[in-house]
Design the sequence.
């Protein structure tokens, strides 16, 4: 389905909630709400790993609840499962090497006017677009 | 008691974050891939989601930092690294390829993990494996907190 005006309004509303949630995490725990960083902090048993785990549990639980109420807000992947697995590996390695993902760099870092985060965001958007273009050429997406 | 309130606050922040992702359409990989697909019917939804999030965070995080310290910690822990280096760009580039192949970044992947579909579970398990691989390949990267 293509883009409609309601998508823009819902996008802004959802984005505002994401920004608020990230600022709330800063207010309560004093840290950047970067999902990849929070996950790896749990894996590393960082000092505040309990709070990090609680954030992740909240993320997963709320996702499950919203999906029960509004199933259409969730879709399965477009790609095949082996491609999704490869994608997950790349996301895991890349976000650790690059110290962040769409939330840490894209939202929080960019919102803090961090040059590093702006550079990272432009980079992952560019290579993301290249990956989609490559998939299209390979005949995967239509 | 303080521990319980701290945990509850983090849980609530995570829940709010997931709700925003879902409302914004970010738990639908087709929307994300549509944004990255400049050769097709380009879908700008992600621009609105990210724009809204960045603007709100920009304004509110400044108000938050005016307090001397966060509620459940003695000090703020903000990134101090400056300068754009090869590691940052290489990591972001790898992440972007994974994002464009699967249509999931870490937040939406986790928010979709318990919705009954197999794809997000496969994604999250592979992502965690990728994080472990990075730790094995770069043992010095294990960060003190």
Sequence:
């Amino acid at each position: 389905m293509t883009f409609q005006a309601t998508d823009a309004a819902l996008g802004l509303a959802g984005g505002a909630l994401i920004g608020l949630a990230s600022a709330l995490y800063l207010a309560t725990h004093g840290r950047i709400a970067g999902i990849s960083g929070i996950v790896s902090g749990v894996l590393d048993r960082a000092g505040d790993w309990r709070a990090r785990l609680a954030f992740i549990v909240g993320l997963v639980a709320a996702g499950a609840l919203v999906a029960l109420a509004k199933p259409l807000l969730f879709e399965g992947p477009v790609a095949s499962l082996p491609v999704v697995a490869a994608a997950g590996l790349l996301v895991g390695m890349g976000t650790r090497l690059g110290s962040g993902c769409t939330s840490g760099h894209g939202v929080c870092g960019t919102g803090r006017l961090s040059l590093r985060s702006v550079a990272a965001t432009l980079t992952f958007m560019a290579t993301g677009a290249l990956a989609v273009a490559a998939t299209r050429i390979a005949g995967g997406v239509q | 008691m303080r521990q319980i309130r701290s945990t509850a606050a983090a849980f609530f922040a995570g829940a709010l974050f997931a709700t925003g992702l879902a409302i914004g359409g970010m738990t639908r990989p087709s929307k994300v891939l549509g944004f990255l697909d400049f050769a097709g019917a380009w879908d700008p939804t992600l621009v609105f989601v990210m724009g809204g999030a960045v603007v709100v965070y920009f304004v509110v995080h400044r108000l938050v930092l005016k307090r001397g310290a966060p509620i459940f910690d003695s000090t703020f822990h903000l990134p101090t690294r400056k300068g754009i280096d090869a590691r940052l760009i290489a990591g972001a580039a790898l992440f972007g390829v994974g994002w464009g192949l699967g249509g999931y970044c870490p937040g939406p992947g986790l928010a979709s993990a318990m919705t009954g579909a197999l794809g997000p579970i496969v994604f999250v398990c592979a992502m965690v494996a990728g994080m472990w691989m990075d730790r094995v390949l770069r043992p010095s990267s294990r960060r003190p907190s």
